[in-house]
Amino acid sequence: MNKILCANSFQATSDGHGGNRRTYQIQELTNLAGLEIISLQKEFVKTTKYERVINSLKFLLKYKVEFYPSRNFINVCGHTYENFQKVLSQHKSKKILLWESTANPLFLLVAAEYGFKTIALPQNLESLVVGQTDLFTRQSLPQSLENELGYLGKANAIFCISREEQWFLKLRGIDADFLPYYPPKAILFNLLEVRKQRNILSNNRFLILGTAHNPPTRIGIIEQIQWLSEISKSLDFPIDIAGYGTENLKEYCNSSNFTLHGSVSVEKLNSLLVNSKAVLVHQKTGSGALTRIPEMIIAGIPIIGNSQACRSAFHYSGVYTYDNQVELAELMSNSFDLPPILERPRSAERRFVQYIRQLAANSENS
After folding, report:
1. Which of the residues in the chain have pLDDT under 50?
2. What is the domain range of residue 144?
3. Claim to verify: residue 164 and residue 198 sit in the same structural domain
4. Lower Cβ count inside 10 Å, N or C end of the chain?
5. End-to-end CA distance of the chain
């Protein structure tokens, strides 16, 4: 099987958060195209402080990029540049780079120099993530967004995870395709098992899922708890809260309605899913629950979410949106039918597989 390189921030695994699962999906589709992904991070080796400084200076002089002179940037730039050059020069298969780590444009610049075709697969528009700044310049909005668009526009192809990002890029004159998240086989199998076990007539508990280590998710969960604490004064309901780092939210849960589970095993999570009336999704600022919502619908679990969290999912049957506490309380009081299984985005998957397969066929070997 021909090998291609992938610059990603997450491991492809079914046990992690949404980023891991999106990477897993991309890996599975790439395998369908007859290609094997080699993750750059696994190929990197350690460098000394002196080597990092020298390598960083080499990169900055060659590409003449604007940058903010910080020790952290020098370390990251120098380490990545030296390692990436070595991997590219030793790569003996198809000259294709899947660029998931779009927050780091170094991969794009150096790959082009070595004759690689680059497919950008942004998991978000990184500059729009709360607290995020440009890796090179440390600029924030609006300039960080302009910088990001400039780099994305240099990729040979872009496959967005959401319609809104595709629309926005096209609005800015950048051609982009759409590849929504749909769970890989291993995750899909587990979700369908949960669906079989659910009894929607007896479920009366609500479930909040999220990685509280992720700042936007944490901010959203905290506001969600505050809203629910107010609602609980007139409406009684049990709520389970699970996910990485959620055990640290105890100070916000002053009501007996809340049960904090923290990080849980697959078996425990399945039990929570089977016994939930609906999953509550809330974002104060963020880019949407782009992996969580499709998975819950497949598992047969309705979603009650605010409009910020539900972007790209408004048309899914089983998604119910609110914009204030009153609307949230009304939805929690409703009964829900079992949502139909989410249809697989076969056309979008086919476009991605065909594109990468054609690119590989036209790619020169090293």
Report:
1. 365-366
2. 2-182+346-362
3. no
4. N
5. 16
- Asked whether residue 341 is assigned to any structural domain, the reply reads no
Strands (E), the chain: 2-7, 35-39, 96-99, 117-120, 157-160, 177-178, 205-209, 239-242, 258-262, 276-281, 303-306, 319-322
> Looking at the structure, do residues 77 and 126 belong to the same domain, yes or no?
yes
Q: How far apart are CA 70 and CA 5, in angstroms?
A: 29
Specify the CATH number for the domain of residue 150: 3.40.50.2000
The residues pairing with 208 across neighbouring beta strands, listed in sequence order, are 241, 280
Do the Cβ atoms of 219 and 226 come closer than 8 Å? no
Checking 68-77 for CB contacts under 8 A at 24+ apart, the result is 68/136, 68/137, 68/138, 70/138, 73/135, 73/136, 73/138, 75/49, 76/135, 77/52, 77/106
Mark whether 43 and 128 lie in a shared domain: yes
Calpha distance 183→209 (Å, rounded) = 17
Q: Looking at residue 201, what is its pLDDT? A: 61
Mean residue pLDDT of the chain comes to 92
Question: What is the C-alpha to C-alpha distance for residues 83 and 140, in angstroms, rounded to an integer?
Answer: 28
Number of domains observed in the structure of the chain: 2
Are residue 328 and residue 358 in the same domain, yes or no?
no
Q: Bin 288: left if φ > 0, else alpha if -120 < ψ < 50, else beta.
A: left
Q: Tokens representing 145?
A: 């967004």
* Structural Rg of the chain based on CA atoms: 22
The answer to whether residue 273 sits within a structural domain is yes
Cβ neighbours of residue 71 closer than 8 Å, sequence gap 6 or more = none
Q: Return the residue matching tokens 């200076």.
A: 57
Which pLDDT does position 255 carry in this prediction? 82
Cα torsion angle, 160, 164, 167, 172, sign: negative
**Cβ(281)–Cβ(311) below 8 Å:** no
